[in-house]
Write a structure and sequence with these properties.
This protein is of the alpha/beta class and 592 residues long. Helices cover 54% and strands 10% of the residues. It is built from 21 helices and 15 strands. The strands form 5 sheets. It has a 4-stranded antiparallel sheet. It has a 4-stranded parallel sheet with strand order 6-5-12-13, sandwiched between helices. Strands 7-8-11 form a 3-stranded antiparallel sheet. The protein binds arginine (ARG).
């Protein structure tokens, strides 16, 4: 099923071809976009203004000529506005046709991509025995939503949790494991126990700098393959993975692979040698570095920085003077592996904006090596507390995902208690879990990922506004209506035995249909620039349109044909909410 703007664009392009003939490039497609203001129509095109100059035509005159050629299109009333805009007001009849088609369509009008990609999404990626901080929370939620949407669009998606399992932190952890670790606590709460150990050693090191040397010695022993240290290291990773799996499963998030940094250890030395041999890297003060190759203008060059009006080199170090490899080296090896073994043509990294320079350098080194693809750094800003400072616990610690989830569920349980005191305890708990976790996810996904956002418990759990509870509650309401009304015509339509004529007469009815029809445009658009917030905003608008439709347009107390037509709108609303929220990774409930 084509979306409305695609369908209109096709006819507009035909008209253009008839009007301009060979002057129009073969693969040209007229742009058709949503109108910002419904007074002018549903969609518009500025194509006449774009092409007028080359065609040596007056833009308004060209627009009018196109409109004349579109005289009998069935989708919309077409009109001319301003300096040459073509406006399309979609007819109620067309929306009715679309609603009927959507009712038969499992994908609810969302087209599959024409060119499916092999896409690796790198997200979450916390570090072993280090706290999973708010940056990892954002990455985890955004990355999962993108993976779900991309899969639904027809791409082959591979999710890979590139955990930090080979860092200098292991020096401290190994020393701590041998000297401080509480084995009882480790059994009970492994992730926390490792974390506490890491923090304790860190603190001791500040007090006694000599200890740093002991930690370094442990790290060197690990790196040179010491059996005891290797086995402790393995154990740390296992324990961390178990703990993480628990968190992910509560979040309903799953990874196809867990290829952490250590997986690439063997590949690092040959990689550096290859870069040296090809002249891409060179030695500088004992380290091996990649410098700018001068292809970009200085302001776009990730290997240059402006200091006091002068451009100075910031090379990517890929091997330190002491022989150690770095984060960048691992990322180059990781990218190679994904292209070679996964046959990836696209790799998206959902990582905080603070790593912008790192990824620009990585992608640029790949360009120097002749490796190309759709490589994206899907960056995001930070989470702030209500005081607009980085979100921390009361004692200044970073906030872990586990704590945030527990707190959200606790608070959601209070809301459920108030709203549905008579619900059985077990169901209450399940509702609180879905509402609490949904609230965290929706609060994240409704933000423009690049801006910092304020973490506000009251707002995210509110039953009004753009929140998960509001949307979950809207879904419950739609479903309740459908259950209450026992309509044989509607039942027959659901089972495919009958067809319902859709009637759109009321303004709010029409508006609900208009939004439902847009679902098929919004879902693909979220992937253009990796912005799940477009989908979140859309779902909120849809839920609001549903509520105002339901206030103005009685379902139960209307005549038979209106009733079944309105029931179809209810059913489409519930399906779009279910599919749309599902693409964001948020669960819906039948009751709450
Ligand atoms: N472990 C890293 C961190 O916590 C994130 C890794 C992101 N993925 C990557 N391929 N670099 O900052």
């Amino acid at each position: 099923m084509m979306t409305l703007p695609e369908q209109i664009a096709e006819k507009l392009t035909d008209a253009l071809r008839a009007e301009l003939g060979k002057a129009l490039p073969v693969d040209f497609c007229a742009p058709v976009t949503v109108s910002q203001d419904l007074r002018y129509g549903d969609y518009q095109s500025n194509v006449a203004m774009v092409l007028a100059k080359n065609a040596r035509r007056n833009p308004r005159e060209l627009a009018q000529a196109l409109i004349n050629r579109l005289a009998d299109i069935s989708e919309a009333e077409v009109s001319l506005a301003g300096p040459g805009f073509i406006n399309f007001r979609v007819t109620a009849k067309e929306y009715a046709v679309r609603m009927a088609a959507m009712f038969e369509d499992e994908r609810l009008g969302v087209p599959l991509v024409k060119h499916p990609k092999k896409l690796v999404i790198d997200f979450s990626a916390p570090n072993v025995a280090k706290p999973m901080h708010v940056g990892h929370i954002r990455s985890t939620i955004i990355g999962d939503a993108l993976a779900r949407i991309a899969r639904f669009m027809g791409h082959t998606v591979i999710t890979d949790n590139h955990i930090g399992d080979w860092g200098t932190q292991f020096g401290m952890i190994l020393w701590g494991w041998k000297n401080l670790l509480d084995q009882q606590e480790l059994k009970r709460r492994p992730i926390e126990a490792l974390l506490t150990t890491y923090k304790d050693v860190n603190r001791h090191c500040k007090e006694q700098p000599a200890l740093l040397e002991a930690c370094k010695a442990e790290l060197v022993r690990l790196q040179s393959g010491d059996v005891e240290n290797l086995s402790i290291w393995k154990r740390c990773i296992e324990l961390t993975k178990c703990g993480l799996e628990e968190i992910y499963s509560r979040l309903d998030i799953h990874f196809d692979y867990w290829l952490g940094e250590s997986f690439y250890n063997e590949a690092l030395q040959p990689l550096v040698e290859d870069l040296l041999a090809r002249g891409i890297a060179r030695e500088s003060e004992g380290a091996i570095c990649v410098f700018s190759d001068g292809v970009h203008a200085p302001k776009d060059d990730p290997f240059l920085v402006n200091k006091d009006g002068e451009w100075q080199p910031v090379p990517a170090i890929i091997r330190k003077a002491d022989g150690g490899f770095l984060y960048a080296t691992t990322d180059l090896a990781t990218l190679d592996y994904r292209i070679r073994e996964f046959q990836a043509d696209s790799i998206w990294y959902v990582v905080g904006a603070t790593q912008e320079k790192h990824f620009k350098q990585i992608f640029d080194i790949e360009r120097m090596r002749g490796v190309t693809g759709d490589f994206r750094h899907v960056a995001f800003g930070s989470i702030l507390g209500k005081d607009r400072r980085p979100f921390k616990t009361r004692d200044g610690e970073t906030v872990g995902l586990q704590e945030v989830m527990d707190e959200a569920v606790r608070r959601a349980a209070r809301v459920v208690d108030e709203k549905s005191p008579d619900m059985p305890a077990e169901e209450k708990a399940a509702v609180a879990e879905a509402v609490g976790i949904g609230a965290i996810k929706f609060a994240e996904l409704s933000q423009n990922r690049l801006s910092d956002y304020i973490f506000d418990w009251d707002k995210m759990l509110s039953l009004t506004g753009d929140t998960a509870p509001y949307l979950q509650n809207s879904y419950v309401r739609v479903r309740a209506i459908e259950r209450k009304i026992n309509d044989p015509v509607f039942a027959a339509a659901l089972s495919g035995a009958a067809r319902i004529r859709i009637i759109l007469t009321e303004e709010r009815e029409l508006h609900l249909a208009r939004l439902l029809a847009r679902f098929g445009e919004v879902v693909p658009a979220t992937l253009d620039d990796c912005r799940p917030n477009l989908l979140a905003a859309y779902l909120y608008e849809l839920a609001r349109a549903f509520h105002s439709f339901y206030e103005a347009c009685p379902v139960l107390r209307s005549d038979l044909s209106t009733r079944s037509s309105r029931l179809v709108l209810c059913e489409l609303t519930s399906r779009v909410l279910r599919l749309g929220m599902g693409l964001l990774g948020i669960r819906l409930l039948e009751r709450m």
